Amino acid sequence: MGRELSVQVRAEERAFSVAAFGEEWFVCPACVCVDADGVKDRDDTHLNLMERSSEPMDGGVRYVWRTCSNLWKMKEYVLEVQADSARFFVRVEGKGKLDALRFFGERAKYEASGYLLPVADHADYERSLRMIDEPGRIGLGYFAPPCYVYPFRMPEVSGWLGVGLAARAGQYNFDEFLYTNDSQNACGFELPLNGQTVVDGMWESQSLLFIPGCDAFDAVRNYAHWHYDRGWCVRKNRDNIPDWWRRPIFCGWGEQGSMQKMRGRQADYATQRDYVWMSEKLDEYGLHPGSIIIDDKWQQSYGAALPDPEKWPDLRAFADAEHAKGRRVLLWFRSWYPEGLKQEECVDWLCTACGADPTSGAYQARMRGVMRKLLSDAAGCFNCDGFKIDFANCMPLGKYVTCHEKGVYGVELLTRFFVMMRDFAKAEKPDALINCSCAHPYFDEIVDQARIHDYRGGMRSAPEVMGFRAKLAAAALPDVLIDTDAGGTGSRRDFRRWMKAQGGLGVPDLYWLTRTGEVPFDEEDIALIRACWKDYEDRL
To answer: Is residue 235 part of a domain?
Structure first.
């Protein structure tokens, strides 16, 4: 982050203000309501007992307000101010299952006029801008997870102020972060915890982080770098990644859809016969991707994650043939779905198995064997090269969800799943590729390619919508490769614009090989793709 960017904080008896770029943005009560066991924490119960103190800290100053409430026999509101940021959190003493944190109790005053919603949905930058009185939600979606930070703007001010959720490793037991506004010139921020965090004694909360940026993307970038700089997230060294990770991708999902439209049935998705045909078509067109993705549903069952022998009588022969052509083989992997799993391998919801549980020893044992079978080059194994992990946002959520390791929930459970996949995969094949749709620094040391996900082709604005997502992902994960994806482009003009734009944003990704898809496809289109890929690879 540029050293010229700074925040200024003024601490008062029961509140503090945050300024940047010569303007005051927020005036905030020194308050975090910590709701528990179905009871609201009333922050005003003991206001007369609040005491404030301050002390120097490394590079700044720390303010502490001490009080108590109807739920907690001791509360400390802590504000740590450094030149580039301010961090606000609460410590409590007592017992309870936490329902939510409510920063400021929706009573912060503001001068900001709006914010950017930094999520991946079917919107471009302009449509992602919100007015200040519009509530916001950052949750699991096409980015799982996104950066939990709202970049705020103010008219006639040259910079933006990010207000985000900062968490230490192990503190990600949540899935969404809310901006609230009561339409009475006051706002707040809420972190739902769904009773999944249990306090027994002293407990320190996640933090609200104030951090400036030159623009909205810079605020997201500085939010990410704050985590890296403090050691709260780990930035992996990527100086010597395999060359094939950077090369263009062919994903069979679009062509599978084209085939199904022609055949009028669903049963033949992702067959070896069809992928051999796609591979030969790539050769015929003179298109030479670094990898080919076998998409949904090559598996006999999603949970057991081994090939359907009727669809794939010899996956090893296919993988070896692709390797001989200079291509690697990636497998689409559906997260969480419990099809084919036993009860003891699953997350529980009211005594019902509702998703694979990466904290289950039984599921871990299964997946260790699955990874060996899918990736090893040993006899009897399939010699594939990595995974495109999908449906990560479709994880079990809510108050009644439990997994085998108590207290692990939401993004923290998602992290355990990706870490398991990474560790078991790379134990079998060190250059196995892990591709998933995340855009948060907590996942930097896990992901090799960040996929920017699906696109609704009827919008006719692929470079704008997908470019917005790519900028967010690059801000969160500075050195991670971006899989530009291609799903759903619905017109020839939009398709061609996106083919031209992909190489400037990340790794090109092609989904179609015939005119039976959602776009016309002729020799001119094929020549364009060849030219775009050559230009991209010449710049590697």
So the answer is: no
